[in-house]
Amino acid sequence: MSPEIRFCNACGHATDFRIPDGDHLPRHVCPACGHIQYLNPKVIVGVIPEHADGRVLMCRRNIEPRFGLWTFPAGFMELNETSAQGAAREALEEAQVDVQVDGLLMVINVPYVSQIYLIHRGTMRGDHFGPTFESSEVRLMREDEIPWDEIAFPTILHSLRQFFADRAGGRYGLHSLDLTFRPRPPQRAEVPGDAATP
After folding, report:
1. Does 91 lie in the same domain as 34?
2. How far apart are CA 73 and CA 165, in angstroms?
3. How many CA atoms lie within 13 A of 5 on its CB side?
4. Pairwise CA distance, residues 133 & 63, whole Å
5. pLDDT digits (tens, 9 = 90+) for 94-143
6. Under 8 Å CB-to-CB from 17, ≥6 apart: which residues?
7. According to the 3-state scheme, what is the secondary structure of the chain?
8. What total number of domains does the chain contain?
9. 26: CATH
10. Upstream peptide bond of 65 is cis (omega within 30 degrees of 0)
């Protein structure tokens, strides 16, 4: 079901929802000026920042969805930036970390939320990192320290597992994955100061 777009963003006239000539799907079409408003998937970019000692930088989410669960820096790609630039920006915004964004590791299609993930490997340029508005806690972790049962999203879980598998094998590849069904969300992690819930 397409979200309702009631007015044309070009001229302000009320739109029709119909299949335009030569198309195969219904779109929001302006009968006054002919402008068609397309709805397309969102692109999420992310990076797995690796420290010189081999640990990776993880962030505990301070925002919904998945408040209190763990991720690496990732977020919506902005206009006029490459996926690597977006991943580096997200790392600064979410973890105060300067990252050299390396090769693309994962392309993950998530059609049930109309999203595409572009996940990069990255190398930390220094030792500085810290919490932000979006991350209540930021920590370097070895593979065996990662709270695998408290990972915020399946895309993050699959990307981390692939990263460590490639690193153990001595060769990084470019991997693709289609997540075609919506999993049960993980339980919200208990964070310090939370009131007990039944």
Report:
1. no
2. 20
3. 20
4. 8
5. 999 999 999 999 999 999 999 999 999 999 999 999 999 999 999 999 99
6. 2, 4, 26, 27, 28, 29
7. CCCCCCECCCCCCECEEECCCCCCCCEEECCCCCCEECCCCEEEEEEEEECCCCCEEEEEECCCCCCCCEECCEEECCCCCCHHHHHHHHHHHHHCCCEEEEEEEEEEEEHHHCEEEEEEEEEECCCCCCCCCCEEEEEEECHHHCCHHHECCHHHHHHHHHHHHHHHHCCCCCEEEECCCCCCCCCCCCCCCCCCCC
8. 2
9. 2.20.70.10
10. yes
Residue 195 lies in a domain: no
Note down the domain range covering 82.
Answer: 42-178
Tell me: do 53 and 85 sit in the same domain: yes
| Judgement on whether residues 96 and 126 belong to the same structural domain of the protein | yes
Q: Enter the pTM of the model.
A: 0.87
